[in-house]
Design brief:
The protein is of the alpha/beta class. It contains 4 helices and 4 strands; from the N terminus they run H-E-H-E-H-E-H-E. Strand 3, helix 4 and strand 4 form a beta-alpha-beta unit. Helix 2 runs parallel beside helix 3.
């Protein structure tokens, strides 16, 4: 399944940037990515058009490993108001300067 592939993906992440755009990682992949300590230095995370819904958004919002993220692109994913609220109210994503939710189920 993808979660194991996601952990492998995490280990190969550049120091400050991760892009998994247009790869169907879904909620399980987002949760696996959020659980990787290796992402703790990532400041730009682009996961647009990756099949991530509310559960994946909530995993990202609650990940202590993603506290350094300043630029988060989740555009083109099936995220609703529930997932958007989790991201906006996240006690972890306090450094977030840019959040792209264009083309989500909020539109």
């Amino acid at each position: 399944g993808f979660p194991n592939a996601s952990v492998t993906f995490c280990r190969g992440l550049p120091v400050t940037f991760s892009r998994a755009a247009h790869h169907p990682i879904g909620d399980d992949g987002a949760a696996a990515l959020a659980g990787c300590p290796e992402v703790r230095t990532v400041t730009r995370l682009y996961l647009d058009h990756s099949g991530i819904g509310d559960r994946g958004a909530e995993a990202i919002a609650g990940s202590p490993h993603l506290a350094a993220v300043t630029d988060l692109d989740l555009s083109g994913n099936p995220i609703t108001a529930r997932g958007a609220r989790a991201l906006m109210n996240s006690p972890v994503l306090t450094n977030l300067e840019r959040l792209n939710l264009r083309g989500t189920d909020l539109d």
